[in-house]
Design a protein that fits this description.
The structure is a single chain. By secondary structure, the protein is of the alpha/beta class. It folds into 2 domains: 18-32 and 310-417, Aspartate Aminotransferase, domain 1 (Alpha-Beta Complex), CATH 3.90.1150; 53-307, Type I PLP-dependent aspartate aminotransferase-like (Major domain) (Aspartate Aminotransferase, domain 2). Helices cover 38% and strands 17% of the residues. It has 14 helices and 17 strands. It has helices spanning 18-23, 50-63, 73-93, 107-119, 141-150, 170-173, 196-205, 225-228, 253-258, 293-309, 311-330, 357-366, 379-384, 401-417; strands at residues 31-32, 35-36, 38-39, 101-104, 128-132, 153-157, 178-184, 209-213, 232-236, 247-251, 269-273, 276-279, 335-338, 347-352, 369-370, 372-374, 390-394. The strands form 5 sheets. It has a 7-stranded mixed β-sheet, with helices on both faces. The protein has a 4-stranded antiparallel β-sheet with strand order 13-14-17-16, covered by helices on one side. A two-stranded antiparallel ribbon has the order 1-2. Helix 7 links the parallel strand 7 and strand 8. Helix 2 (50-63) runs antiparallel to helix 10 (293-309), helix 3 (73-93) crosses helix 10 and helix 11 packs parallel to helix 14 (401-417). The radius of gyration is 22 Å and the shape is globular. The two termini are 43 Å apart.
């Protein structure tokens, strides 16, 4: 994933002041069961910096009003803050036009929007949708529903024993019948970084539209959708340390213009009579009803905060955490890492021999260590590795090697308890 260019004169140094960063996340000062919180569940949701919390609070305290069409001062200020956040997201994603940025409730809604507003009017029997074996359920189920609705067929690009995509199979699976290729930028279950640039290029050559689930990529660096050449890109604010209930859909303007609305109601209309409705222009055509204004403002503040730290510094720190965790967990007897692809972000999934992941997570919680256990909304991945679930530790810019040591010590305690 692209990061800040460290050769620019104004680029921040590639060293993160983690102590200062941690001080800006209030929840990290909490204790769990009398122990310092080691929050290692960042792939599920990121914690929130003061910059985000303060932006949401300020909106409600000083600017709360509905956006667009209002002529009073509060409405104008709220609209300016909301649309200012849209432009910040546009720059974060490298989109050419602010009208290509649609606010949703999250990655899940963004993908469903594409499935229903782009796919449903266009697909029919004999058409194919290609996804991968690594996908989150949110990038599987919407396409299954679309297949049921249209008669299209779902095809799946396989993975290997490392949890990496078998890209060589693309030529077999991409055909003249492929209409949509939907792939995650990063696997939430394993941390695998997929070669989406190559997949997008080959999908475009086959005439297919590409939909990228960027929920797990966005917390780790900006994305240039123009450079990638994708048609749609989805992300969630809460994964990247912003508010919950806010998502983004980037879509190529020509495609969005040709798509019908996903939902009907206020804001997405120009005029309404009982004889018919004229829809609003982009992006408002896809933003029916009052949006999560405070959440969008908070997302804008979050991106500004992350950019102030420098993406190169964040990436270097997270790479160090991944290497440290991989090495230390690899030395523990009975611990087996699940997902060892050569390209990964800071996620380590593992199983402990003879101990269910839920028991592992429960004991770690007593030690103050928060991880995720289960199938991670990626049951096909679990089936592939023949495990019911994994334990997953996922790291972010505010995590430390001391917290990885706490994880290791907690796992040693797990083994003591279960003999």
């Amino acid at each position: 994933m692209p990061v800040t260019d460290p050769t620019r004169p104004d680029a921040p140094p590639a060293t993160l002041d983690v102590a200062r960063v941690r001080a800006e996340f209030p929840i990290l000062a909490e204790t769990i069961n009398g122990r310092p919180l080691a929050y290692l569940d960042n792939a599920a949701t990121g914690q929130k910096p003061r910059a985000t919390i303060d932006a949401v609070r300020r909106y409600y305290e000083t600017t709360n009003a509905n956006v667009h069409r209002g002529v009073h001062s509060l409405s104008v200020a709220a609209t300016d803050a909301y649309e200012g956040a849209r432009d910040r997201v546009r720059r974060f994603l490298g989109a050419a036009d602010i009208r290509e940025i649609i606010f949703t409730r999250g990655t899940t809604e963004s993908i469903n929007l594409v499935a229903q507003a782009y796919g449903r009017p266009r697909l029919g029997p004999g058409d194919e949708i290609l996804i991968t074996h690594l996908e989150h359920h949110s990038n599987i189920v919407p396409w299954q529903l679309l297949c049921e609705q249209t008669g299209a067929t779902l095809r799946v690009l396989p993975i290997d024993d490392r949890g990496a995509l078998v890209v060589d199979r693309l030529d077999d699976l991409l055909t003249e019948r492929t209409r949509i290729v939907a792939v995650g930028h990063v696997s939430n279950a394993l941390g695998t970084v997929n070669p989406i640039d190559a997949i997008i290029e080959r999908a475009r050559a086959a005439g297919a539209v590409t939909v990228i689930d960027g929920a797990q990529a966005a917390p780790h660096g900006p994305v240039d959708v123009q450079e990638l050449g994708c048609d749609f890109y989805a992300l969630s604010a809460h994964k990247m340390f912003g508010p919950t209930g806010v998502g983004v859909l980037y879509g190529r303007r020509d495609l969005l213009e040709a798509m019908p609305p996903y939902q009907g109601g206020g804001e997405m209309i120009k005029s309404v009579t009982f004889d018919g409705t004229v829809y609003n222009a982009l992006p408002h055509k896809f933003e029916a009803g009052t949006p999560n204004i405070a959440g969008v403002v908070g997302l804008g503040a979050t991106i500004e905060y992350l950019e102030s730290l420098g993406w190169d510094a964040i990436e270097a720190h997270e790479r160090h955490l991944l290497d440290d965790a991989t090495e230390k967990l690899g030395t523990l007897p009975g611990v087996r890492l699940i997902g060892t692809a050569p390209e990964k972000i800071a996620v380590v999934s593992f199983v402990v021999e003879g101990i269910h992941p839920h028991d592992v997570g429960t004991i770690l919680d007593h030690e103050g260590v928060a991880i995720r256990t289960g199938h991670h909304c990626a049951q096909p991945v679990m089936d592939f590795f023949d495990v019911p679930a994994t334990a997953r530790a996922s790291f972010a810019l505010y995590n430390t090697t001391d917290e990885i040591d706490a994880l290791v010590q907690g796992l040693q305690r797990v083994m003591e308890v279960f003999g």
